[in-house]
């Protein structure tokens, strides 16, 4: 009746997951009770849960990503402290638990932390920067978000019902086959990642269609902001490679559930095929993460230097170059699998060649600052920290791209330090820079600068104190994923690393405090004009936060840096462009199909994990029924009356009139 | 980019010059404004274009899934683990019937879309039914093949080659079955709601899907069955 | 705090010197302290590639922070060029620098990958010693086919003689790695990888598995003793005189999952054993068995197995 599920699935005998689960459950229940008591459900349901507005969905993606980043960071704290404590000692985490933690850490950070954050930024910004009202498929967008959330839910449920995978974040067979890992852990992983993978693919299709087919008038390809180019490249990669992940995990699922032989040890299974397929996805995946990060910096450098991005066309060329070449390098993740010198040489050279694209971008950012008036506000601090951190990470990456050097450092702590160097230095720093930069646009008030700067310094210093020792440890021969350490000479470096983690914790606390203080002081920090940073692209033309239809009248773009031209002309003539003719606007209605489908997807995943077949069928049928019911609806758009459009836009113009006089007097912007 | 009162001939030339592939033009009526194409700087494209384009991109991603299964088959083709070889399990005759059924169903699908274009409900439904029936024939023949093989003890659990054989062919059959369910839903929708804009868009998507499945099948019967039987 | 009398340059030098002890520590006992020719070549390539990259990276970093500092908003002396966003000359340089660097690195990659191909035998006047390696859960089995002995978690090799390893796995993926001797390579079930290494001088080293293989992975280290040729012969003879035989029964017990396995030797081997393992005539290890207390698993149900 309940498949494999019984009471022994609850970790009553393991204090750490038990207590963590109880705290998490209490928190979740507490939040639900609070929302109910304050009668926020109608607001949440109508304004957020069923919203098909790309801005709301983008914010929810980012919220999910931040929460999962915290969970992944908690795993990281446990890992570092365990390794520091378990030197010729057992530590406090037995292997079966520690192995789940590092698996969960990697899976959550990449797939449920960084991916949703990047998807969130793309969702929020691309339509605004392109001057359109929403993405190509708004309701589908909502489905995609909620499916990602379902996947995240399943991963977290594994904390208190059952266990998570113990194989590392990429479950290599034969270890991940039922022979060697018979429990439900790998199944949790498989279904969570599959379900969220569908969500990611949906966003990919959405953004590609939006960028290629939905731009406002005058916005030709070479007038798009670079962030939109990087979003396009990243989403083209998503469309090209997430199906590989889907297929490969499906094959592993078939192996585990019905005893097929894609990757098994025996009967013609081929574990090397898994390694190839999964990294054919895995390498482009990290470029999916880092390209929008580069895009974020391509927006921040010009804005805070007060001049356009240097070398726009070569930035575009470099982006597309990286996009294409990233699909030709996957073997560098397993040079040591013995493919032979010729194959290793090809992939080593192609992996180094990608550095060309990245190098060009970095030089272009540097020359963007040249001749500028650089303001070191918080987003720019993160950008400068990124330059240093990412360049070093790229350096170690090129080292690892040399097969003989990789033969010494593969799977060592040197590798761990390298990929954290590029992902934290690249993606995480970009996310924080982007949050500091676009928070006012999304929520209507600025963030407290002092705490933001403190958070940056803690993060920057903490990162290096944590990971620099790991480079040295890797060179000393320490391999990754060790639950306990048999080499006392590694102790000092492991201790230094834990100190670094402590500094990072201070960074997290500063970041949280910045949020709390900013919310508390939000009236003082209110962004009245919609353009707090002297921005250059179209999102800064809207009020903060933008109305749900983004633009009362879609812009007609006449040059690169669409908004900058409009602003300059307005300042010169000391008047806004004439009031346009307002027309009613058609917008899509909200829909519950997203959360409905995702709910049954989560139930389906849970049922499949625990072999509860009847529930799986029920969930599948219910999901399809929901979709069919949604497809049957008669009303899918509503019209915003012209009076409301006019009212919203006139308020925006009034604020801009005041802003205009400020700009004319060249007041220092708040 | 609305008409601005130019003489008709000049206007016609202007449209062609600025939109040579006539992406922004459909016979909605002589007074309809020229639409944006989404390319260049002409403004967002019409919803019909967006839907078709987005679905094409989805189809490309689906083909990537299939290519992974093709790759697995290529790798594991000879991993017979002491069991039967590919030549010993393929039945060219049945595959011939399956191919005929599927290709014919693509033809009837196209005919139904031609009927949709002229908004003829009866013939749309007739040809959709035929498409569905032919698809059903395909699926039943394939099921028969699988049942026969399993009855002879040739199961996917037997070897890597059989795993990737059943996986690739089965994945395609699963897509055809899902397409059949979608087909039934579309027929019901068209019957109840008529040729509303979104329904026509969905029929476009269904057509694309069905033809893409046909293309994949051609790949399968070439690489798996024809090459397999010749080996 | 540093006394104010020290100049800024001296202060900078002291700060930069702080990590030196750590760096020096990292240089001994690990991959940058090779004990054999393969390791030495690998390490040389690593250092050369680092030097090439640093030659580009350091000037780039200096440029980045110097430009950021010079063009800071409060510096009214720096020129403000609000429309300057293209320069063909700079573009040409900006594309050429990475391209040239990568061409250099590409050369290192090409030459290095072929010269240091793990499958390539080492040039030497001594004939290579054959060692067959099997990774199990969670220990290493070394078979010396010519000497007719086998060891667990202990590798003894003659110094100055190339060793040719044939490596397979009797369970999941592992990676055979002796940091100070150089290159590692995967141990994969059903396949035989090859590795050629050599220890130049007698000494004590250690090896490990470098690919995560399950709950007992942290203890998959093995002793590596490089001894003189004469001592090696002596050791092989002694090992061949005592201890159990590595027959099917002994191997079956090795296949069961065990952790923290103490090094031991076997005095006789079945010469067909390695081939049988590599070709999977002997099935791979059975994985976790609920009755085995060492299996260290709290698997939630066995998913239909046992």
Explain what you see.
The complex is a heterotrimer of chains A (670), B (231) and C (306). Chain A has 670 residues and is mainly alpha-helical. Chain A has helices at residues 15-37, 41-49, 54-85, 95-130, 138-157, 185-213, 226-258, 271-305, 312-325, 341-369, 378-400, 403-409, 413-443, 449-475, 491-520, 562-573, 593-609, 613-631, 642-664, and strands at 585-588, 637-640. Chain A contains 19 helices and two strands. Mean pLDDT of chain B is 87; it is low at 24-33. By secondary structure, chain B is mainly alpha-helical. Chain C folds into two domains: 7-115, Helix Hairpins (Orthogonal Bundle); 129-284, Immunoglobulin-like (Sandwich), CATH 2.60.40.420. With 306 residues, chain C is α+β, with helices and mostly antiparallel strands. Chain C is built from seven helices and 13 strands. The radius of gyration of chain C is 27 Å and the shape is elongated. In chain C, strand 6 and strand 7 (182-187) form a beta hairpin. Helix content of chain C is 34%, strand content 22%. Classes of the chains: A mainly alpha (670), B mainly alpha (231), C alpha+beta (306). Chains in contact: A-B, A-C.
Based on the model shown, name its key terms:
heterotrimer, A: 670 residues, mainly alpha, 19 helices, B: 231 residues, 2 domains, elongated
């Amino acid at each position: 009746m309940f498949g494999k599920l019984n009471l022994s699935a609850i970790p009553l005998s393991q204090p750490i997951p038990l207590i963590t689960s109880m705290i998490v459950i209490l928190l979740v229940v507490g939040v639900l009770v609070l929302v109910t008591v304050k009668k926020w459900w109608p607001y949440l349901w109508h304004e957020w849960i069923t919203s098909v507005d790309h801005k709301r969905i983008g914010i929810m993606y980012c919220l999910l990503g931040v929460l999962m980043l915290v969970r992944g960071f908690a795993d990281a704290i446990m890992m570092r402290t365990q390794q520091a404590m378990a030197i010729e000692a057992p530590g406090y985490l037995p292997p079966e638990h520690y192995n789940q933690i590092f698996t969960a850490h990697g899976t959550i950070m990449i797939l449920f932390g960084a991916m949703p954050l990047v998807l969130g930024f793309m969702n929020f910004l691309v339509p605004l920067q392109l001057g359109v009202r929403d993405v190509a498929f708004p309701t589908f967008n909502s489905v995609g978000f909620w499916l990602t959330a379902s996947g995240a839910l399943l991963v977290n449920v594994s904390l208190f019902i059952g266990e998570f995978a113990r194989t590392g974040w990429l479950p290599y067979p034969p270890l991940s086959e039922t022979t060697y890992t018979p429990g439900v852990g790998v199944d949790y992983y498989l279904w969570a990642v599959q379900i969220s993978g569908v969500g990611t693919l949906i966003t990919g299709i959405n953004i590609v269609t939006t960028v290629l087919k939905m731009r406002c008038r005058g916005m030709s390809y070479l007038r798009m902001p670079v962030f939109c180019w990087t979003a396009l490249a990243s989403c083209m990669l998503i469309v090209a490679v997430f199906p590989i992940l889907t297929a490969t995990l499906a094959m592993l699922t078939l192996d585990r559930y019905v005893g097929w032989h894609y990757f098994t040890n025996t009967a013609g299974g081929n574990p090397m095929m898994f390694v190839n397929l999964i990294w054919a996805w895995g390498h482009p995946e990290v470029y999916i993460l880092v390209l929008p990060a580069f895009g974020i910096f391509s927006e921040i450098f010009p804005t805070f230097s007060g001049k356009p991005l240097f070398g726009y066309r070569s930035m575009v060329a470099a982006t597309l170059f990286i996009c294409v070449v990233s699909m030709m390098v996957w073997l560098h993740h397993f040079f040591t699998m013995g493919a032979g010198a010729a194959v290793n040489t090809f992939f080593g050279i192609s992996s180094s060649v990608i550095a060309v694209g990245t190098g060009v971008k970095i030089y272009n950012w540097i020359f963007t600052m040249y001749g500028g008036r650089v303001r070191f506000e918080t987003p720019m601090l993160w950008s400068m920290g990124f330059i240093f951190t990412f360049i070093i990470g790229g350096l170690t990456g090129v080292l690892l791209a040399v097969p003989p050097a990789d033969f010494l450092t593969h799977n060592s702590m040197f590798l761990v330090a390298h990929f954290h160097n590029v992902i934290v230095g690249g993606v995480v720093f970009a996310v924080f820079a982007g949050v500091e930069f676009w928070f006012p646009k999304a929520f209507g008030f600025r963030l407290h600068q002092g705490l933001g700067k403190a958070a940056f310094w803690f993060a920057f210093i903490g990162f290096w104190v944590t990971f620099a020792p790991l480079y040295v440890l890797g060179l000393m021969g320490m391999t990754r994923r060790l639950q306990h350490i048999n080499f006392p000479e590694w102790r000092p470096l492991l201790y230094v690393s834990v100190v670094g983690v402590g500094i990072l914790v201070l960074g997290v606390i500063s970041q949280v405090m910045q949020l709390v203080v900013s919310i508390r002081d939000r009236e003082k920090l209110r962004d009245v004009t919609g353009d707090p940073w002297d921005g250059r692209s179209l999102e800064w033309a809207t009020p903060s936060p933008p109305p749900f239809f983004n633009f009362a009248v879609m812009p007609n773009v006449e040059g690169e840096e669409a908004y900058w031209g409009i602003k300059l002309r307005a300042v010169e003539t000391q008047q806004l462009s004439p009031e346009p003719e307002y027309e009613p606007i058609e917008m899509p209605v909200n829909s519950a199909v997203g959360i409905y489908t995702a709910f049954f997807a989560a139930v389906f995943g849970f049922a499949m994990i625990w072999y509860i077949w009847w529930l799986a069928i029920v969930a599948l049928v219910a999901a399809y029924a929901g979709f069919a019911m949604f497809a049957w609806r008669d009303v899918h758009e509503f019209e915003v009356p012209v009076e409301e459009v006019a009212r919203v836009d006139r308020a925006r113009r009034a604020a801009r009139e005041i802003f205009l006089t400020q700009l004319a007097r060249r007041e220092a912007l708040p | 980019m609305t008409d601005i009162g130019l003489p008709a001939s000049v206007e016609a030339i202007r449209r062609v010059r600025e939109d040579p592939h006539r992406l922004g033009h459909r016979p909605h009526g002589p007074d309809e404004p020229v639409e944006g194409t989404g390319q260049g700087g002409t403004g967002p494209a019409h919803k019909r274009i967006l839907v078709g384009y987005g679905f094409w991109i989805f189809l490309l991603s689906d083909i990537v899934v299939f290519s992974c299964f093709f790759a697995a088959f290529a790798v594991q083709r000879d991993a017979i683990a002491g069991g039967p070889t590919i030549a010993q399990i393929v039945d060219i005759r049945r595959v011939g019937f399956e191919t005929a059924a599927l290709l014919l169903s693509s033809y009837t699908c196209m005919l139904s879309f031609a009927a949709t274009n002229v908004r003829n409900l009866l013939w749309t439904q007739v040809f959709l039914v035929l498409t569905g029936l032919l698809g059903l024939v395909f699926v039943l023949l394939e099921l028969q093949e699988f049942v026969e093989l399993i009855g002879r003890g040739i199961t996917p659990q037997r070897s890597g080659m059989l795993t990737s054989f059943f996986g690739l062919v089965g994945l395609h059959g699963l897509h055809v079955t899902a397409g059949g369910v979608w087909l039934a839903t579309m027929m019901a929708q068209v019957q109840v709601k008529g040729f509303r804009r979104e329904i026509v868009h969905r029929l476009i998507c269904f057509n694309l899907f069905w033809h893409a499945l046909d293309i994949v099948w051609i790949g399968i019967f070439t690489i798996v069955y024809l090459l397999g039987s010749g080996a | 705090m540093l006394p104010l009398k020290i100049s800024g340059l001296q202060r900078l030098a002291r700060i930069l010197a702080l990590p030196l002890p750590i760096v020096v520590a990292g240089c001994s006992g690990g991959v940058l302290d090779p004990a054999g020719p393969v390791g030495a070549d690998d390490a040389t390539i690593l250092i050369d590639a680092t030097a090439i990259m640093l030659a580009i990276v350091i000037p780039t970093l200096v440029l980045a922070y110097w430009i950021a500092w010079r063009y800071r908003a409060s510096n009214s002396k720096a020129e403000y060029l609000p429309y300057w966003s293209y320069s063909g000359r700079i573009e040409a340089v900006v594309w050429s620098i990475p391209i040239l660097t990568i061409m250099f690195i590409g050369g290192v990659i090409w030459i290095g990958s072929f010269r240091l191909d793990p499958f390539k035998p080492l040039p030497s006047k001594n004939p290579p010693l054959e060692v067959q390696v099997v990774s199990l859960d969670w220990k290493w089995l070394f078979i010396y086919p010519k000497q007719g002995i086998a060891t667990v978690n202990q590798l003894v090799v003659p110094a100055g003689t190339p060793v040719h390893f044939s490596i397979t796995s009797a369970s999941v993926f592992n990676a055979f790695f002796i940091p100070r001797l150089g290159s590692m390579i995967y141990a994969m079930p059903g396949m035989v990888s090859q590795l050629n290494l050599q220890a130049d001088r007698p000494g004590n080293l250690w090896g490990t598995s470098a690919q995560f293989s399950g709950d007992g992975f942290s203890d998959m280290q093995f002793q590596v003793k490089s001894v003189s040729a004469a001592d090696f012969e002596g050791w092989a003879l002694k090992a061949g005189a005592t201890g159990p035989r590595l027959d099917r029964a002994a191997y079956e017990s090795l296949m069961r999952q065990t952790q923290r396995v103490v090094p031991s030797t076997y005095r006789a081997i079945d010469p067909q054993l390695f081939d049988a393992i590599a070709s999977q005539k002997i099935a791979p290890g059975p994985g976790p068995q609920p009755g085995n207390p060492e299996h260290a698993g709290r698997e939630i149900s066995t998913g239909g197995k046992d």
